[in-house]
Design a protein that fits this description.
Order of helices and strands: HHHHHHHHHHHHH
Bound molecules: heme C
Helix content: 55-70%
Strand content: under 5%
Number of strands: 0
Number of domains: 2
Distance between the termini: 101 Å
Number of helices: 13
């Protein structure tokens, strides 16, 4: 009883939180159950104690709100920590897997759809820029019918660099809207800038994408002509990377870089 009396007064309302089981009094202490001043008549009843306070005070309201929050937090913790009573663990696991694979499938679909040649050529149109050169070159048209796609060379396979590249493509959308390369003339004028970016990147990654297919440790140097072998042996020993010599393997080179004489000339310069 003493607990109740101390605990339910507006001055110390929070104490009753600790003894919810003992708390048989009405929550709303401002509802007078008895006329004012009758406390002494029924001092043995906890209910009447409350009637001494007839106005809601800020403290009481705060106490009620805090209690509400506490109940919510407790329920939430119980929900997290206790096995679900309503749903079996099996159902929860299955729902989790379905949501997880659903999300992954959408992600995977988006990744795939934005990596096809059709997607790239949607902007890098056959008639306007890159596409029409690429279809005639050996990575696209060859005796074995082996098709190297845009993404094989331009989209990294490891996850983090791949996401970074996808993110950078947002800039491409922006320039597409600006119309930076939407005519053959504009494209040509911009080509050196873009090619330089690709070269720098491939230099940095040691031509990672080329090496996905062309494995230097699988190279049958004997099958190459003497000239090619000399280039490659010297390249490997000097830690050169493919793109240092093999520029323009899939596109017309930017103006000012002459394709056929480029390799010997570069190599001569490197041997000095
Ligand atoms: C929304 C249109 C659009 C799509 C789709 C698109 N591109 Fe581009 N791309 C551009 C534009 C515009 C530029 C020029 C951007 C600049 O100068 O910053 C560009 C530049 C490039 C460059 C030059 C290098 C660089 O880093 O800027 C490469 C390589 C490239 N795109 C490859 C691709 C590949 C591969 C795909 C398909 C996976 C693709 N693009 C899809 C519009 C697009
Ligand atoms: C998806 C696999 C793949 C990727 C990626 C790839 N290649 Fe190739 N490459 C091939 C195949 C297949 C051939 C042989 C084509 C043929 O039979 O003519 C080839 C041929 C070549 C040739 C000889 C023919 C030519 O066009 O001169 C060179 C040089 C070459 N690749 C360099 C590169 C470089 C540099 C890169 C990176 C920028 C690269 N390749 C990326 C598959 C690939
Ligand atoms: C020092 C310059 C140099 C470097 C570095 C270099 N190559 Fe070459 N490569 C050549 C030359 C020159 C040729 C002969 C001309 C040609 O086919 O373009 C050649 C030819 C090739 C060929 C055609 C081979 C054939 O027998 O027809 C392939 C494929 C090739 N290189 C791939 C690569 C790859 C992949 C790398 C990086 C691991 C690389 N090269 C690094 C200079 C180089
Ligand atoms: C065999 C690898 C390879 C393939 C396949 C390839 N590219 Fe490239 N791409 C390069 C390299 C290397 C460069 C750097 C410039 C150069 O050496 O020609 C480049 C440059 C570019 C540029 C910058 C402009 C320029 O001409 O230099 C664009 C845009 C581009 N590629 C888009 C594409 C698109 C779109 C496709 C598919 C239709 C594609 N590439 C297929 C290797 C490739």
């Amino acid at each position: 009883m003493t607990v109740l009396i101390r605990g339910f007064g507006p001055a110390n309302s929070s104490a009753s939180l600790d003894h919810p089981a003992n708390d048989t009094s009405p929550r709303h202490s401002w509802v007078p159950l008895q006329p004012r001043g009758n406390v002494s008549e029924s001092h043995s009843s906890g209910r009447l104690i409350s009637s001494t306070s007839t106005e809601p005070t800020a403290k009481v309201l705060r106490g009620q709100r805090d209690r509400g929050i506490e109940i919510l937090v407790r329920k939430f913790l119980a929900f997290l920590l206790n096995p679900s009573a309503r749903y079996s663990l099996g159902i929860l696991v299955v729902v989790g897997i379905l949501l997880g694979t659903g999300g992954l499938t959408v992600f995977d679909f988006a990744m795939h759809e934005t990596s096809t040649d059709e997607f790239c050529l949607g902007c890098h149109e056959l008639e306007v820029n890159i596409g029409r050169e690429y279809v005639g070159m050996s990575h696209s048209l060859n005796a074995r019918g082996f098709q190297v796609t845009c993404s094989d060379c331009h989209l990294p396979k490891p996850f983090v660099p791949k996401m970074k590249r996808k993110f950078r493509a947002i800039g491409e959308i922006y320039h597409h809207i600006l119309g930076t390369i939407d005519t053959p003339e504009k494209f040509e004028a911009h080509r050196m800038t873009m090619a330089t970016r690709v070269w720098a990147e491939m230099n940095e990654t040691d031509s990672r994408e080329c090496r996905d297919c062309h494995k230097a440790d699988q190279w049958d140097l004997d099958a190459q002509t003497q000239e090619v072998r000399d280039f490659h042996v010297s390249a490997l020993s000097k830690n050169k990377t493919c793109i240092n010599c093999h520029k323009g393997v899939a596109h017309k080179l930017p103006d000012g870089i002459v394709p056929d004489q480029q390799l010997p000339r570069m190599n001569a310069a490197e041997n000095q």
